[in-house]
Task: structure prediction
Amino acid sequence: MSPEQQRDQLIVAYQEMADLTKLECGPVPCGQKHCCTEGYCIEAIRWARRRWDVTLERTSHPTIPLLDLETNDCTAPPHTRPICTIHTCAIASAGFKRDDPDWTQRYFELRETLENLEGTFDMLNLVDDELD
Ligand code: SF4
Ligand code: SF4
Result:
């Protein structure tokens, strides 16, 4: 597989993961983006620059720099914010989605794909590089 093909597959897999996890958030149980924080946005900005050579532009949101103030949606593409893309409350708390083995299976299939394509998959161990 060429680097370009690998890159394209990775972006598609992140998008599929985002589509899967986003459904878990709203409007039940708590509405989308309840758990967004400035810190996660900053990690996304760092990751986007280091991994993808992309600069994520900050929004006018007063506290969450990648959240659109009007739509309440994230402005960062899924592959530039992996920590957020893979996060759901069920996975973070129990490690699986209760009463939904099909969803859980699909989630971990995508996690494996992402890990294989990312190689080191060290997104949770980002170095503390300086932010501009
Ligand atoms: S991951 Fe959990 S806390 Fe965050 S928005 Fe979704 S349901 Fe809410
Ligand atoms: S990068 Fe996006 S999903 Fe992650 S915390 Fe910021 S606004 Fe929320």
